[in-house]
Prior knowledge:
C: alpha/beta, CATH 3.90.1180.10, two-stranded antiparallel ribbon, 8 helices, 6 strands, 15% strand, Ribosomal_mL43/mS25/NADH_DH (chain B), ribonucleoprotein (chain B), Ribosomal_mL43 (chain B), ribosomal protein (chain B), Thioredoxin-like_sf (chain B)
Amino acid sequence: MTLLRIASRAVLTLHPTISLLNQQKANVARWVRPTLMEIRARKKKLEIKNGPQKESPRSNFIEWNYDAEIYAFGIRLKEKFNYTLLQQAFVDRSYIVQEEMKQRSVGVENPSLNLSDNSALAKKGEELITEFVISFLNLSLPKFPRDGIKAIYRHLVSDEVLLKVSQSIGTKDLILSSNYPPMNDVYVATLKAIIGALFESSGEARAYEFIRDFICTQLNQVDVNELWKIENPMELLKEICKDKKLGEPEPRLINNAGQNTILAVHYVGIYANKKQLGTGFGENIQIAKEEAVKDSLRTLFQTNNNMKPFNFRMPVEKVANLLKKPALAAASVDNI
Amino acid sequence: MNHSQFLISGFLRPPFYNGVGRQINQLQRLTIKFCKSHGGSKGMRDFIENHLVNYAKENQSVVVYVKPRRHRSPVIVAEYLNGDRRWMSAQNRNHEEILKWLSLLSLQAGDTEPIRYRKNWHTDCPSIQGPWTPFTHKNPAFNNIAFPDKELGKQLNMPETATEKLLRLVQEQKNTKNE
Amino acid sequence: MSITQRVQQWATFGRVWHVYDCSYQNPFDSAKVIVKYLKGMQKPIYHPMNDCGDHVVCINTKQIALPGDEWTKRAYFHHTGYPSSATWTLAWELHSKDPMMIMKKAIYRSLGGNLQRRHTMQRLHLFKDDKVPQEVLDNITNQIRQLRPVPQRLDHIDQEVIDNFPKIMDYPEDYLPKAIK
């Protein structure tokens, strides 16, 4: 299989040189097409026989230096890691089990690897992520309700987002796990463990900066209102208006266009005490009303489409100070 | 139309919002393969002697592997964080040329096809004042009008007619008399 | 795409219905204005490849005013395709046959030639008088201003206004106007 891959690559790489030689007419040599076809056919045949070709781990290559890779990883993220801790962050439990099984199979009675897995670091990392993200969101969205903050937090620490982050900082080849490519949860745990390792090696502030720069930035250009599905927006609006003494909110049709056609547009505004809270469009009045309520809520929460973007360069001390106030921190973290 | 003659157009999409939080160098690994005796690798050997250590020092986030192979042409393989792998022949290239290629490779974000940027910036929230709708700046008084309306349909900015001028002059005369 | 974004798009591309009163208007000048609305050229989002045209309801097309001697000199050509079946109909004749046809042809002509023309014409609604069905009237939310003033007829002016109109002198009661030869 590998041979086949090399062969096809050789053909592919040769082929532009051929066309370059005859620049006058971009002819491709007669043998290229049948050769490629043959390679393709054989590849397909093998795939039918053995299933799709497995990706071979980068660490199996001759040109592979794990220490150098780990060192470069730290430099790439512009962080100073304790080497042992960082290495530990990449070790998944499944790898240790696999290695022990290997040693047993060759007759070692008490296999020992001198390796510990990343679960402890991952736990620490998860704690750091939770407290930082919650405080960051509380600071960035001061008017947003607690349920909403929770929803955004849940989105940020969801496996999909953390998986993306983990993959894009280049953990794939460094993770020591029984599978290659690693399973999704291993990616996520590794990212958390890296944050834990950073906390242990460089302190809290650096860990917080890491979370701010890599996890909080996933909110860039995301509509936070979409992350929180409100079940009954009108009820919520009524409650808020009651609390703030704005008066009873009522919907009014402000405008419409082509109301007897299938392309009708309705424009509804929500008013309380003759003051406009928000407006919304819709193809019928019901949808326009719902949108207007949502818009009023957005205005009240200060999360409109034209809101000030998140400050991803917010000094971490500001967030850390918030966490130091025990009542606030407990209230924000315990609720999750 | 021959599509291969034109650059595919697209928008700027940095990987993983690179630079929003902090800038990560997207090149993670570089493998340099060369032959110790062949002439085609002369430039590559010069490069390794003169520039490689410097390059590696300046780009510590890139792991550089040097792999001598007998009687094979020199090759540069760049591996990026997004999983892309770019293979490049360095046959008969001199060391300065190789350095230039390497600096290009280390600035790129992957083995990307060159695209024509439709705009040099990209945002998912393009408007601050909100998109235009037919209701923007519309007079709310129109809601209480039954169309067609005589006054609303009247032409604007017409010059004064002779009748209007006559009436105006008479009115002015009357006003001066009263004073 | 979220619901908010979808309805935003829906509203931006919403089709507005305009009404235009054709009484005493030059159809050829009016057509130039109406065409802008039919194509959506008055909108900031206009682009030739953008389907953002509005509807226009033209009323009182029977009352149009042609300039100069156009009623008797302007001829509308038609050919059924059969030999010797070319016809030239004068404007007054066409108008008496179909009071909406002159307005329609004026707008069709000023739309310019492209494949969108017939689709754009579907958004034009012509009425010979001001009797417009209620379901059409309900759609209308804007009015296009006329291009020229509608002349006022003497018998439509109040008697009081006529009596109070400033006069330099009154004709003597026994005044006889000069006989018309």
